[in-house]
Amino acid sequence: MSEKTTDTKSSDSQSRTPSRPRASDISGPVAKAVREEIRSELRAARDEVREELIKPPRLRNARLYAGAGAATLYAGGALAATLVLVLALLLPDWAAALIVTALLAVTAVVLRQLARQSPEPVPERATKPKAPRARAGRTRKAGAGG
Questions:
Q1: What digits encode the pLDDT tens for the residues 12-23?
Q2: Please, are residues 116 and 108 in contact by the beta-carbon 8 Å criterion?
Q3: Nearest to residue 88, comparing CAs of 104, 106, 75, 100?
Q4: Which of 104, 103, 84 has the alpha carbon at shortest distance from 95?
Q5: Where are the domains of the chain?
């Protein structure tokens, strides 16, 4: 009797195994589908950004702002070097460089504090008073009761 029960158990487990998928069988196609979806979304976002930047006025403005930023950084570096050289006439070189570095650090902290204290920008629509609207339609005459 015990032989029969073991045979039926083994045949039951064998019959269940093929019909029940394993986790690794499911995760592979799901991961592939997710990967393809993410790639397609990234491609679409990249193409959208390219289209926006390719528009002539925006592309030109973006390049001009980038050039202005780079020129400003170079000008700031040249100014710092000039200050170091001027102070080096009176002090040792290391002291002049240290003083200019401290001045730049203090300037950065002050500008950051000013930026934090500035109020949030208010949209232009919210600050302008609304003009009274002219009513369209008929106007009531005095004495016309109705």
A1: 555 555 577 777
A2: no
A3: 100
A4: 84
A5: 26-117
